[in-house]
Amino acid sequence: MAASSSTSTGLEVRILCRRGLLTSPTASLAPGHIQANLLILPSAYASDFRSLCARNPVPCPLLGSTALSKIGDASCIQPDSLINASDVDFDIRTDLPQYNIYESGKLIATKIDVKHEWTSDHVAFLIGCSYSFEGALAAAGLTPRHWVVGGNVPMYRTTRRLNPAGIFTSGTYVVSMRPYREEDVSEVRRITAPYKGMHGEPIAWGYQDMRELGIVDLDKPHWGDVPEIREGEIPVFWGCGVTPQDMIMQAGDKIKGIVIAHKPGCMLVLDVNEADYFKGEG
Amino acid sequence: MAASSSTSTGLEVRILCRRGLLTSPTASLAPGHIQANLLILPSAYASDFRSLCARNPVPCPLLGSTALSKIGDASCIQPDSLINASDVDFDIRTDLPQYNIYESGKLIATKIDVKHEWTSDHVAFLIGCSYSFEGALAAAGLTPRHWVVGGNVPMYRTTRRLNPAGIFTSGTYVVSMRPYREEDVSEVRRITAPYKGMHGEPIAWGYQDMRELGIVDLDKPHWGDVPEIREGEIPVFWGCGVTPQDMIMQAGDKIKGIVIAHKPGCMLVLDVNEADYFKGEG
């Protein structure tokens, strides 16, 4: 089920998820609020994953995590500015629309909660999401196409490698794509650049860059919906927070235990709004 | 002229440079002290360059800069922990062995000081250097080959693109290379990983990775000396702080004004030692 556009706060979105009433992508919900990608790992991999994010901040901007001093606690996110303390029922295992569950790099299930999969050894990481800057693009008259035609932003696996970190040696960038006219690219870059914790400005644009990224066919996104590209437009690519879960798939059975991620497009909506976030950065 | 191995502090190295008595690479000088790559830009590009570093922390780890509140002041580095206040004659224009001077992306001169090129509009940036971890490798019996056979570490331009930032859209990674036996790679990775502000662990290793990086011939480094690779060894590649000056060359006449960099291998030796640096990080 999809939420209506009157769902305007992070708490409202999370409560709908918690009750199993919202199972669809979260783009354009709770406008102005920061959304996050999710990766839940066995604690043995937590340190390497932090290093991976630090070495690849464009596709993997780390916003926060469950408390490392309370491994297995699904109710506490740090920094605590991300989820209001008044949300006493917050639970990372229920508060997203849908979850992907991996074992040995294989997707074994997609569920609306992961209460049975979460263990006392799990740590959850939140990664910035480009949905956070889509409102700013729309406000400037550069509305993302998937807001106009409906559906989910298209996402593509690329051949551009991540900087390795510890056990994570085999990942490549995943990118999201929004089509724009070439003459609008500099404005699109300018608008999205300040969103540093949410992938920032595009990493590439145009058909030559697309080929360099190893993307062959825009009509075959690995996640999300087939895009509508109009005459005179070129593809513009941003780092994407699906990168970590794609890395888990590529790592295969090197990663032991259950790994959980959001279903691409189905984010955790936070309580912090963009204005507060930038104030905090400054 | 080369300094002797008795040159053991950053200040001693800088004074020799300042007097024009040291004009050779700084690898293995002032052991345990952090060394830095240099890029000096017109102030108009300072903000974009900071973003470039933030988006590419592995090849471009930003350690510090001249004071942005005092543009054109060549005597003050921030954070002030990098250069001791007691070095009252510190001058970024004289304190490295040699400098490369660029105009419109072209190398127009190499000099032992840049007093005449520096203007009241220049800002200097310091980028971490992999020399900082070579002592740790040597201490573990994994001595870098160029310490053994003499000369400078080989450096290669690659085809791996930087994440663009503002005006800087055309850069690719430069890497340094040290040969190791394949069975030593995991230990080499483990030792260098903690040096996060100095490129950290390798980004790639082995001949397949080499081809993926677009490196065709190890005997033709773009900077530094031809390596000696022994039987059973593979090339191991780290991000390299020559990346920013190579980016300037690739940007061509898009960058206006005089740009200055260190001559590759000829670093600024800082007063902070590795132990203090890691204490500061923790």
Automatic annotation (TrEMBL), chains A, B:
InterPro entries: D-Glu_cyclase, Putative_hydro-lyase, UPF0317. Keywords: Lyase. Pfam families: D-Glu_cyclase. One of its GO terms (molecular function) is D-glutamate cyclase activity. It comes from the Eukaryota. The keyword Lyase applies. One of its GO terms (biological process) is glutamate metabolic process. Belongs to the D-glutamate cyclase family. This is DUF1445 domain-containing protein. It comes from Oidiodendron maius (strain Zn).
